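Sanity check

After download, print the first record. It should look like this:
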Amino acid sequence: MLISLVLMMAGSAQAAKDKSYSLTSPDGKTVINVETGESFNWSVVYGGQTVIQPSALSMTVDGVTYGPGSKVSKTSTDKKKGTFKTPIYKCSSVEYSYSELDIRFKDDFGVIFRAYDNEGVAYRFYFTGLKGGEKVNAEQAEFNFDFNYKAYVGYSTGKAKPFTTNFQNTYKVQTLDSLSADRIAFTPLLVQLNNGLNVEITESDIEAYPGMFLQKNPEQGNSLVGVYAKVPSALKVGQKRGEEMVEAYSEDVAIIRDASSAKQPHLFPWRILAIAENDGALLTNNIVALTAAQSRVKDISWVKPGKIAWDWWNDWNITGVDFRAGINTETYKYYIDFAAANGIEYVVLDEGWSDHLDMLKIVPEIDLKAIIDHAKSKNVGIVLWGVAYLLDRDLDAVCQKYSEMGVKGFKIDFINRNDQLAVERLYRINEACAKYHLMLDYHGMYPPAGMNHTYPHVVNFEGVYGLEEVKWIKNGEVMVDYDVTFPFIRQLSGPVDYTQGGVHNVIKKEYVANYSNPLTPGTRSRQVAEYVIFDSPFEMLCDTPSNYMREQETTTFISQIPTVWDETIVLDAKVGEYIVEARRSGKTWYVGGLTNWEARDITVNFSFLKGSKTASIFRDGVNSDRNANDYKCEKLKVSSGTPVKIHMAPGGGFAMIVK
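Expected C-alpha cells:
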C-alpha cells in the first residue's frame, strides 16, 4: 500500500508538470498537438488522419538542452488572415489563413507553432536575452510516421564529405524503412501517406544558420531526423576556380552572431510540413512563401525578370560566321544580336570572361565595355558569371565596378554548401547586390527556402538536376521522369534554374552524352512546355543562337512565354507521371503539359476561360515517337464549355498561348 501511495503521488506530481496544448487551423482540418514537461514533442493530424506521430524537438545551446524538462511560463494564441503581394512568383498575390500558438518557457526561449488552411504546419524556436557568442551545439527535429510510407528522396552527392554537395540529384523512390542509414538527403523530401495525402518536409527563413538535411532515424522505424553541417573550422580555396572548400568542421551547429536588443528575439528557421490533399496541390502550395522573412528590398522596380541567352551549355558553338566563336567580344555581340531579334531580355557571360581567381580582372579577349554598350543599344542586359568566394572577397569593389559599367546582375556559382558560413556569405552578397541594383542567379546552390521573397532581386536558384547533366551523363533519359517529379518537390522551396530549351531532341533509345552539341531526351514540344511548367523568373535559352535561328518557329513561340505569373491553376497532375497547368499573365493564359516516357492522351478543360478564345498550340507531331524533333504548331478556337483532347508522345508535352 505504501509503495502504491508513493507511485500515485509521483504520478500526480509528474502530471502536474506535464501539459498538453492543441492548435487547430481556422478551417478545422489540421490539428497540432504539443506535449511539454519531461518530454517535448509535437504531432499533427489532418482531416482525422495522422500526419506525424509524437516527434521530439529541442535545441542545445552552450551545453543546455531546451525543450524537455523546461517549464512553461506563458502561452498565447492568435489567428490571422489576409493577402500579401508576390510580384516575382507563380502568382501575383497569396492569401493566407492560420492559427498560431506561442509557448514561452521560463528559460528565455519559446516555440511558435502555426497551422495553415490548405498549406500545412510549421514551427520555429526563438530565444530572448542572448548576448552574442553563444554556441548552438545541436538541434533535434524528428518526423515520426505511423507507417512505412513511400518517400521521394534526393541524397547528397558528396561521398567523403556529404555536407559538400551541389544539391543536384534525381529522386530515389523508397519506403521509409529502406532509406540509406549512412546517407543524408536534402530537403524538400516528399512522403506520400494513405488516401492520396502528401507531406513534404522542408524549411524556410534560414539566416546565420545551416540548412537542414534529413536522415533515417537509427533509433525508430519509419522516422526521419534533421541533421546539420557544423560550423567550418578549416577552409581551403581551390586554384582552378577559386571555390571555397571545407577541410574540417567544428563541434557546433552555429554561433549566435548579432544578439543586440534590436535583433531580439533571436529567431531560428521554420521547420515545415507542407500538406496537400492530392499531388497537384503540391504545385501551388505556398507555405514556404508564407513563412519567409519579409522583403528587405524596399524598391524592386529595377528587378526585371526575363529570358537569357546562355553560352556555356552550347559551348559557344555558333556556326555560319566569319570569326572564331568562343569567349570573345565578337561572339557575345552575336549573342546580343540574336537576343535583340527575338525579344530575349538578357545575355549571360558565363565562365571565362574574367581571370579565374579575380573577378576584377577581365581577360584580354573580352572588351566588356564594348559588349555592354552594344547590348544597351539593342535593349539587352548583360549578366556576369562568378564564383561565390571570389565575389565575396572583393564584394563592394566588384559590385560597384560592374554596376557602374551597366551590368544588370550576376550568376554566382560553386556555393556547394549550406553551413552557417555559406549562408552568411549569401546574405552579404544579397545585401551588396541590392545596394547596387544587381540581380542574382545562384548556382551550385541549396534550395532557396524563401530567400527569393526576402530578397526579390535573387530571382533564380539552381539546386536542381537540370539540363546541364545531359552534357556528360550516360543515362540522360532519366531527365524525362525527373521533369515530372521535381516540380512537386524541389520547386515547393522556390524557383529553379533548370536551363531548358534544347532543340536537338531525341527519343529514348537515341540519347548519348555530348558535351559540345548536347542532345535533349524527349520531344521538341516538351522543351517548349517546360517554359510554362517550371518556375524560373530568369529563364535560360540553353541552346546556341545558330540552332534557334534554324528553328525560328520554336524560338518565336518560346519568346512569347512570360517568366512570372499572376495566377497558376493545376488542371491535372501525378508525381512522376504527368503535369498539366494553366498560368495567367495579364489577360493571356498559357497552358503546358508534360508526360514521362509513357504516351498519354489528356483532356484540357478550359473552365477558367470566359467566352471563346484563339489559342496557338505547340504539340507533339504524329511521328514524334520516332523523331523527337517532329512537332505541330497551329491555331484553334477554345472555350470554357469545350474540352480539348491532346496527345502527348513518349517523353512529350505541349504548350498553348490563349489570347
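If your output differs, re-run the checksum step. Summary of this record's structure: The two ends are 84 Å apart (CA to CA).
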